[in-house]
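We were asked to recover a plausible sequence for a given structure. The inputs and outputs are reproduced exactly as logged, with field labels preserved.

PROBLEM: sequence recovery
POSITIONS: 171
GIVEN STRUCTURE:
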């Protein structure tokens, strides 16, 4: 798979200056297609990179603006994100190639392994964008679309709905 937002970083050239990544129009269109968005209007990340041996720590912020379809009605739903990014790029070892699931605490940051001297910081930002998108986002027309489709709200179909129906029959 070819990355939509490639920004290769060589660990031998990391300096103290912040890194600013901005997606161009073609990259934004490709990312919008990848994540099922109507469009991605803006994607920018301002990041500080620091090395300790072969381990690179990344801290900063990602801001993005996009339009996605409402999960219920399909209407265009403008969204924004301003997210903290905290990552560590670590050299790939035999131990890092296992498929074991690891649970991270809030204080820990994601680790991404790499080989050689380069890693793709743009793909890490793209993945952060993917995590910021709510796949179940609903717009103002969602409730009407549910009603029109005959889908009851949770209150009308939940566990207490049957009890409410019994009370109405009693009265």
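RECOVERED SEQUENCE:
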């Amino acid at each position: 798979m070819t990355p939509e937002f490639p920004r290769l970083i060589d660990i031998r050239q990391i300096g103290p200056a912040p890194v600013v990544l901005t997606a161009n129009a073609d990259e934004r269109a490709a990312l919008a297609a990848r994540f099922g968005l109507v469009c991605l209007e803006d994607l920018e990340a301002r990041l500080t990179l620091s090395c300790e041996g072969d381990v690179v720590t990344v801290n900063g912020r990602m801001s993005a603006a996009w339009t996605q379809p409402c999960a219920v009605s399909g209407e265009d739903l403008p969204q924004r994100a301003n997210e903290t990014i905290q990552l560590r790029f670590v050299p790939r070892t035999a131990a890092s190639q296992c498929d074991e699931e690891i649970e991270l605490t809030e204080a820990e940051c994601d680790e991404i392994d790499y080989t050689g001297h380069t890693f793709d910081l743009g793909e890490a930002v793209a993945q952060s964008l993917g995590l910021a998108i709510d796949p179940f986002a609903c717009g103002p027309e969602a409730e009407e679309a549910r009603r029109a489709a005959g889908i009851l709200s949770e209150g009308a179909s939940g566990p207490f709905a049957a009890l409410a129906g019994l009370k109405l029959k009693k009265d």
